[in-house]
């Protein structure tokens, strides 16, 4: 990424943060306000920001991104795009199954044997098939917490072994 692109993205993120907080809105023309607010990748909660800040391997980040996309899709007030959500869960499940060895390489043995990290994804698929947004939201939060726990376990293993 070029230095100029990095500076522009940081400036845009700063403006978005100020716009969300309502501090900058009156000072900018309407066209600038609308252009800045189009971007939806700003973390909306502290929990989401912390989860994104965990350094993890690419497989875990891909699973996390798929699940966070579902979180965004759940915010649509009318007809929910359950087909897209199902595709996202299947993508995450495929990564979890195909890359199981690299994901669980540094996880304690008692947690590996439980297979806890794919059970939540299976439950999400059931909630999507039932088209129940409330159960889906609760299951999604649980699955994202599980992903964060796995990422933290990977980071802790890395920190303990490479000091």
From TrEMBL:
Keywords, sorted A to Z: Thylakoid
One Pfam assignment: CYP38_PsbQ-like
Matches recorded under InterPro entries: CYP37-like, CYP38_PsbQ-like, PsbQ-like_dom_sf
Domain of life assignment: Eukaryota
Domain Peptidyl-prolyl cis-trans isomerase CYP38-like PsbQ-like: 50-151
Name of the protein described by the UniProt record: Peptidyl-prolyl cis-trans isomerase CYP38-like PsbQ-like domain-containing protein
Source organism per UniProt: Citrus x changshan-huyou
Organismal lineage: Eukaryota, Viridiplantae, Streptophyta, Embryophyta, Tracheophyta
